[in-house]
Amino acid sequence: MTAPKRFPYRDEIAAVRVEAEPLANDETAATTRRLAGRVLARRDMGKLVFLDLVDRSGRIQLLCPAERTGEIDVHLGDIVGVTGSPSKSRRGEPSLLVESLELLSRIRTPLPDTFHGLTDVEARYRKRYLDLLMNPESRADTLIRSAAVAAIRRTLDGWGFVEVETPELQPVYGGAFAEPFVTHFNALDADYYLRIASELYLKRLIVGGLEKVYEIGKDFRNEGLSFKHNPEFTMLEWYEAYADYRDTMERIEQLVSQVAAEVLGTTTVTFRGAEIDFKPPWRRVKFVDALEEHGLWTRDTDELRRRLVERDVDVSHDPTWAKLIDHAHSHFVDPLRLSHRALAVRPHDRRRPVDRRALRVLRGRNRARQRVQRDQRRRGAAGPIRLSGAGARCRRRRGGSRRSRLRRGAFLRHAADGRDRARHRPADDAVHRPRVDPRRDPVPGAARYAALSVAASTSARISSSVRDGSQPTAAVTLPIAGCRWSMSSIPCP
Question: What are the backbone dihedrals phi and psi of residue 479, each rounded to the nearest 5 degrees, phi first?
């Protein structure tokens, strides 16, 4: 007999627990409630069977007297629907006195240890659904994330921002320094890229006069994989005309504090044993000043290396001054963001004279990565390879097929002269594409023509706070996927 799939008019377990809390021990309410969920514990006590029922809102004990429900044929992990009245057990546990029980779905694979939960770290990351099923903390984090995203949207909408959607498949990737994923557009017979950032298209909307735009969308960066870094992640990015980085700093303070208060009920959270208060105003410190506080700001490469070695910092993989200064910042300044008060690191002021050597803080690591990638291409490891076996190995050694090499060359030429590479006609953008090779030029393409916005100023992101030949509008990039709360100008919550 097929188990029924439908169980309408359900209540949430959390609401039934609240209703059962004020009852006296061994007392039953007169109301009738319907619950559905998964059975994660069973205890047989003669003619009384205790079941633990779990849904997304919480966990509750079911009291199943044999004279009312009959024999209970339920396995751990089965999904059931029950009808009964809120009550309290003799020991004071909020419960549901069951009148009827329906089996909705039978489990086919035994669950892990239902008492200790899923403790295998490898299984937790590879089988997220099992982690959510067995660990209530993971379910709570997922619900908090959903509530935070909704609160962010409400806050930005209240500020007059317009939520938009921009292309994920792009002919020219840009807006960040990252290696993209490559796919093939059959209709155009051209290689397209999964976007690494939504920056360029959002800036075009600013040029078009929308003035305040934001997007919460997927980005893809083909650069390694770890438990903290996923090549596919969700990112919030907004741009605002008639504002500069100081306005954006105030907005990020208000956004984080308001979202924390709305979702958690407080602006104080605990992260890695440290208590952080997101209540504004936050302390502001410039990049150079933050390093000077630790005696690590110097333009001399050898001197900086010596100071880091004296502090027991491994600099064996930092060949350049830019990498050394970035390592110093991440090792000594980033931990300060877990102090009792939130810390915002300010970018260099655009109105000050630009120190060309200081610019290498922002660009050196990416140029080094590009050099490594060019060396790999010379050795024949470049190009999108869509073959397998011996053919793929042969083409990889040759650097791809002749057709793919010609296609890549044509793409770069068309991108450089500002014409549509599919039909050789001018692009439909408000401003022609810049004459740059996006794989080599350190300045993102749209950053040059986005300066047409009448409110151009300095970006709030440290990674793009100073650019030659451009003045991008105020912006902030905020990854919000899962565990990836690594923000540019504020600490990790």
Answer: -65, 135
Q: Are 81 and 52 in contact (CB under 8 A)?
A: no
3-class secondary structure, 234 = strand
What does the DSSP assignment read for 253-281? HHHHHHHHHHHHSSSEEEETTEEEE-PSP
Name the DSSP class of 463: G
Q: Tokens 């990015």 correspond to what residue?
A: 237
Is-contact 477 485, C-beta < 8 A?
no
Among 195-209, 306-320, 382-396, whose mean pLDDT is lowest?
Answer: 382-396
pTM: 0.67
The predicted-structure confidence for 30-75, as pLDDT tens digits, reads as follows: 999 999 999 999 999 988 999 999 999 999 999 999 898 888 999 9
Query: 13-111: CATH homologous superfamily?
Result: Nucleic acid-binding proteins (2.40.50.140)
Look at the alpha carbons of 25, 31, 37, 38 in this order and tell me if their dihedral is positive or negative.
Answer: positive
Average pLDDT over the chain, rounded to an integer: 75
The conformation of residue 228, written as its DSSP 8-state character, comes to S
Which secondary structure element, helix H or strand E, spans residue 35, and what is its range?
strand 33-45
Q: Where are the domains of the chain?
A: 13-111, 159-282+341-386+395-479
Longest dimension (CA), the chain: 85
